[in-house]
Amino acid sequence: MTTLAYLRVSTDQQTDSGAGLEAQYDACLKAAGELAGVYRDEGVSGSTGLDKRPALLEAIGVLNPGDVLMVAKRDRLGRDPLVVAMIESAVQRKGARIMSAAGEGTGSDSPSDILMRRIIDAFAEYERLIIGARTRAALRAKKVRGERIGGIPYGYQLGSDHRSLIEQPEEQVIRQQVRMWHQSGMSYSGIAKQLNAQGAVPRGQRHWHPQTIKNICLS
Predict the structure, then answer these.
(1) Total domains in the fold of the chain
(2) One domain for residues 7 and 91
(3) Is 164 a known active-site residue?
(4) Residue 172 DSSP SS3
(5) Molecular function (GO) terms listed (predicted)?
(6) What's the CATH number where 18 sits?
């Protein structure tokens, strides 16, 4: 039996901070003791279907009977009960099972554990809807105040007027290097590995991730 970890972050802010991915990895490793592989879907919403999650599809594809797909929490599978049910079905067809580092009723298929999983999935969907409503309200309030809406691209910081962007010298150097590497044909993954090897420190995280590089190249 082998254990694979599946990590997911839904927003650019979570991806850029790295906290989501790093914390999920640590939780999965602590629960499993050893991981045979780690699969990351970065910038993927919890309501996104299985067909649009390349890392999860790859992880499920290599599962063998008796294997475990480990997540830090069940909401990393998704925040839509239908999506989660489809993922569970795909894993079960491989003869494997999904485990949560937080427990959450994934220890068995007893009636009480199944009920626990369904309740957790329902609350995950409810939380997604609440977050969406709060986000829309916050954006409307910012728009009324004339403040900037959206994330702050790597290489910049928000000005005192809460609208303008000011270049951040140290990050601008890395930003330009990333763009040069990308224009020369390097992949997002290759650039992330290069920066990690050089010891360059990303904003608010321990390691560079491909999605962070992609955000820089597209911003």
Answers:
(1) 2
(2) yes
(3) no
(4) helix
(5) DNA binding; DNA strand exchange activity
(6) 3.40.50.1390
Report the C-alpha gap between 19 and 131 in whole angstroms: 19
17 falls in which pLDDT band (50, 70, 90)?
A: very low
pLDDT of residue 16: 46
Give the whole-angstrom CA distance, residue 136 versus residue 177. Answer: 35
Q: Which amino acid is at 145?
A: R
**pLDDT in the model for residue 148:** 75
φ, ψ dihedrals at 41, nearest 5°: -110, 110
At 28, the amino acid letter reads: C
| Catalytic residue from among 10, 164, 184, 219 | 10
Looking at residue 62, its amino acid is: V
Q: Please report, rounded to a whole number, the percentage of residues in the chain having pLDDT higher than 70.
A: 96
35 φ, ψ (degrees, to nearest 5): -120, 130
Segments forming the whole domain that contains residue 205: 156-218
pLDDT tens-place string over residues 39-84: 999 888 888 999 999 999 999 999 999 999 999 999 999 999 999 9
- What is the value of pTM for the model shown? 0.66
> Per the structure block, which two tokens stand in for 31?
């629960």
Has residue 94 been placed in a domain? yes
Per-residue pLDDT, 12: 53
Check: CB of residue 46 under 8 Å from CB of residue 75: yes
**What is the mean pLDDT of the segment spanning 129-144?**
82
| Token pair listed for 162 | 């809460």
Work out whether the CA dihedral 108, 112, 118, 121 comes out positive or negative. negative
Tokens of 4: 């694979």
